[in-house]
């Protein structure tokens, strides 16, 4: 069973807070902000409480507070001041730091309060692209470097998913759907389970008034053939985060074309980092790659191209 990370190196703290290790050592020595324990080999190790305190301190510091002023505050004053600032700030980075603090504390109430305050100033598309996506990119690096545990990542990821689901459900109930356009079929290939990107694309397409068929994660290509008993034209959409891998991605696309696109008026639109492994010279015209959401919107949701 995955254990929650409870001690951190100074490099972990640097990665999580954005404050250089050299600066952290100065703060530690001059202001006694952090109290690390020492291993038998004299290596600093910091507790979860130290990390929480540092994230609070960092948020105040990035918001213009002098470190000497922060150091003079009582320990119970800092969290209250942080919450007040985080919920009133229009700064994307302050909001991202507040989400990270909610993650470290497993504090869904702080997450919801921060989200609610941001939503008073920005729509969901802005929040997702400018706060949730940068947050997820940071968490991916933090997880790989061991600064956070999978428990932290799963906690915050599922809270983000909840927000997408709520927005999507609202659109499905209220937004009229275009009947003069092929439906978008959203799916992830076999063994691909990272679904934040495809969930957001589903929301985005619905928000522009188009119909979607959302099929979720880890689907075999052959299972999609059933759709053609329902209709003849589709726009398939997939988000490739880690699968198919480098060796499998071109065979996957070849099979997809042969099974679902050849001699049909359908398309496959691809998003995600695994696009880097695609040999574009061997890509059929019915398969398109998108590096940004904006280019997809302009081509398919605003210009409404389907040729």
List keywords for this structure.
elongated, 3-stranded antiparallel β-sheet, 2 domains, alpha/beta, 11% strand, 5-stranded parallel β-sheet, single chain, Multidrug-efflux Transporter Regulator, Chain: A, Domain 2, 12 helices, Rossmann fold, 8 strands, 307 residues
Q: Helical residue percent?
A: 40-55%
Describe the sheet with the most strands.
5 strands, parallel
Which class of secondary structure composition applies to the elements? alpha/beta
Number of helices: 12
CATH topology of the largest domain: Multidrug-efflux Transporter Regulator, Chain: A, Domain 2
> Cα-atom Rg, whole angstroms?
23 Å
Number of strands: 8
* Poorly predicted regions: none
How far is the first residue's CA from the last residue's CA? 50 Å
Q: How would the global form be characterised?
A: elongated
Commentary on this structure:
The chain is of the alpha/beta class. The chain has two domains: 7-169, Multidrug-efflux Transporter Regulator, Chain: A, Domain 2 (Orthogonal Bundle), CATH 1.10.1660.10; 175-302, Cobalamin-binding domain (Rossmann fold). 51% of the residues lie in helices and 11% in strands. The chain is built from twelve helices and eight strands. It has helices at residues 10-17, 21-31, 48-62, 67-72, 77-88, 92-104, 108-119, 124-144, 150-174, 196-207, 249-261, 293-302; strands spanning 7-8, 37-38, 44-47, 184-189, 212-219, 235-239, 267-271, 287-289. The protein has a five-stranded parallel beta sheet with strand order 5-4-6-7-8. It has a three-stranded antiparallel beta sheet with strand order 1-3-2. A hairpin with a 5-residue loop joins strand 2 and strand 3 (44-47). Helix 3 (48-62) packs across helix 5 (77-88). The relative contact order is 0.08. The model has no long low-confidence stretch (mean pLDDT 86).
């Amino acid at each position: 069973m995955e254990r929650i990370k409870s001690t951190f190196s100074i490099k972990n703290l640097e990665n999580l807070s954005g404050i250089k290790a050299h600066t952290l050592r100065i703060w530690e020595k001059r202001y006694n902000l952090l109290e690390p324990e020492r291993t038998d080999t004299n290596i600093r190790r910091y507790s979860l409480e130290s990390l929480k305190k540092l994230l609070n301190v960092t948020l105040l510091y990035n918001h213009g507070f002098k470190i000497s002023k922060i150091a003079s505050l009582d320990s119970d004053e800092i969290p209250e001041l942080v919450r007040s600032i985080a919920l009133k700030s229009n700064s994307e980075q302050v909001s991202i730091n507040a989400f990270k603090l909610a993650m470290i504390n497993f504090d869904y109430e702080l997450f919801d309060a921060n989200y609610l305050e941001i939503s008073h100033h920005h729509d969901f598309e802005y929040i997702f692209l400018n706060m949730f996506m940068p947050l997820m990119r940071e968490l991916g690096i933090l997880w790989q470097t061991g600064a956070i545990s999978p428990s932290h990542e799963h906690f915050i990821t599922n809270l983000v998913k909840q927000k997408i689901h709520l927005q999507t459900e609202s659109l499905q109930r209220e937004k009229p759907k275009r009947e003069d356009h092929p439906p978008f079929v959203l799916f992830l290939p076999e063994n691909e389970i990272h679904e934040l990107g495809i969930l957001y694309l589903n929301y985005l397409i619905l928000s522009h008034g188009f119909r979607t068929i959302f099929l979720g994660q880890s689907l075999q290509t052959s299972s999609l053939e059933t759709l053609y008993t329902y209709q003849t034209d589709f726009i398939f959409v997939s988000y490739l985060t880690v699968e198919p891998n480098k060796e499998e991605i071109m065979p996957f696309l070849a099979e997809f074309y042969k099974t679902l696109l050849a001699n049909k008026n359908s398309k496959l639109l691809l998003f995600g980092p695994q696009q880097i492994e695609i040999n574009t010279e061997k890509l059929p015209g019915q398969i398109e790659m998108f590096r940004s959401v904006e280019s997809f919107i302009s081509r398919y949701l605003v210009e409404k191209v389907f040729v």
